Amino acid sequence: MTSARRIALASRPTGQPGRDNFRLEAFDLPEANEGDVTVRSLYLSLDPYMRGRMSDAKSYAAAVPIGGVMEGEAISEVVKSLHNNFVPGDLVRGRTGWSSHAVINGDQLRRVETHGAPITTSLGSLGMPGFTAWSGLKFIGQPKQGETVAVAAASGPVGSMVGQLARLAGARAVGIAGGPEKCAYVKDELGFDTVVDHRSERFASDLQTACPDGIDVYFENVGGHVWDGVLPLLNQFARIPVCGLVAHYNGSGSADIDRLPATMSTILRRSLLVRGFIQTEFAADHFDEFLDEIGPRVASGEVRYREDIIDGLENAPEAFIGMLTGRNFGKLIIKIAD
Ligand SMILES: NC(=O)c1ccc[n+]([C@@H]2O[C@H](COP(=O)([O-])OP(=O)(O)OC[C@H]3O[C@@H](n4cnc5c(N)ncnc54)[C@H](OP(=O)(O)O)[C@@H]3O)[C@@H](O)[C@H]2O)c1
User: Fold this and answer.
1) Is residue 214 one of the residues assigned to a domain?
2) Total domains, the chain
3) Which residues of 29-48 are buried (b: 16+ CB within 10 A; e: fewer)?
4) Average pLDDT in the 297-325 region?
5) In CATH, what number is assigned to the domain containing residue 62?
6) Is the CB of residue 238 below 6 angstroms from any atom belonging to ligand 1?
7) Phi and psi dihedrals of 177, rounded to 5?
8) Are residues 210 and 109 in the same domain?
């Protein structure tokens, strides 16, 4: 038996999660059965959706049970394989959780493929978040030459890809980010046409100035006061892929005022298309197409990204809590082992 470490959900948070909602514990890996693969985790992806899994409110996926290992995707090395597709030493990606080791059926693993980019990109720009940006724009936002595309959390893995893909489509990319350092990165390094700081008191008027022709595609990542600034600027027939609402994930607070009348009347008057989506809707049919199209561009540096890599599984709770208020700068990843 291999002795391993994992982070379990100790209790359900009310509002902002705290350290005491998580528990670091040792456990014995179960014996592998036919078809199983035993893996050693190298890098764990931390993503905003995990806040939803900590809650037992009705959602599109089941909650993590109290005492259960926190859900998440990791890059791992195969140490033992009872599955035909894998041998020890293979690098794989799968939903093995916040855990140093795991035993998982090989059918649930994917080989890490990055077209020569660093393997960690398979958790970010070439993984689920990058695919989310690509599929939300391709199937819902559909930016056209000369249109204006706005996106918040613009320095993160989803937003950074949205803006760069919008520019590749010939649209004007307007980023929204928190603080001067993230804003400078979004404009100077990611190449967005312009950027607006949502933490500024002048956010709404700055956004208006940044969008002189209004907004044709708003890729919704955050909700809250950012949505208040965007709503009056939406053009007739604007498309709004609703991807995430991170400002609301911790529940009640100033973000949760009633926006329904203003939102619905704008949808009606401006003939808006508002379409929510979870990337899994498109992944089975289109992930490989995404990887073939964007992989070489990430590997060559044409499409850029930033990673925020924190050492040590034990530091995952603190890093995750910080991400929900914008303390991460780039795709948040926990390095578990060399
Ligand atoms: N639908 C899907 O299938 C799917 C898949 C993946 C991700 N998502 C969603 O996509 C969004 C972005 O994900 P990501 O992984 O790229 O996250 P991320 O950018 O790495 O991290 C979240 C960012 O949200 C911003 N933020 C936090 N609280 C905010 C607030 N109150 N107001 C405005 N901004 C706030 C912060 O950036 P600033 O400091 O710049 O504000 C923070 O860094 C999330 O809502 C996530 O749930 C959806």
Assistant:
1) yes
2) 2
3) beebeeebbbbbbbbbbbbb
4) 97
5) 3.90.180.10
6) no
7) -145, 170
8) no
331 alpha carbon – ligand 1 mean position (Å): 10
Residue with CA closest to ligand 1 atom 15? 47
Identify whether residues 132 and 113 lie together within a single domain.
no
Q: Is the CB of 162 under 6 A from ligand 1?
A: no
Instruction: Enumerate the β-bridge partners of residue 111.
Output: 92
21 CA to middle of ligand 1, Å? 21
| Residue from 158, 245, 287, 320 to probe ligand 1 pocket by mutation (most atoms less than 8 Å from CB) | 158
Question: Same structural domain for residues 90 and 171?
Answer: no
Q: What is the dihedral of CA 191, 192, 194, 199, to 10 degrees?
A: -110
Look up residue 23 and give its amino acid. Answer: R
CA of 261 from ligand 1 middle (Å) equals 25
What's the CA-to-centroid distance between 49 and ligand 1, angstroms?
9
Atom of ligand 1 nearest to the CA of 156: 19
Stronger pLDDT, 57 or 285, i.e. the higher one: 285
Q: What is the pLDDT of residues 70-116, one digit of tens each?
A: 999 999 999 999 999 999 999 999 999 999 999 999 999 999 999 99
Band (pLDDT 50/70/90 cuts) for residue 249 is: very high
- Give the domain CATH number at 164: 3.40.50.720
Q: Which amino acid, 71?
A: E
pLDDT value of residue 252: 65
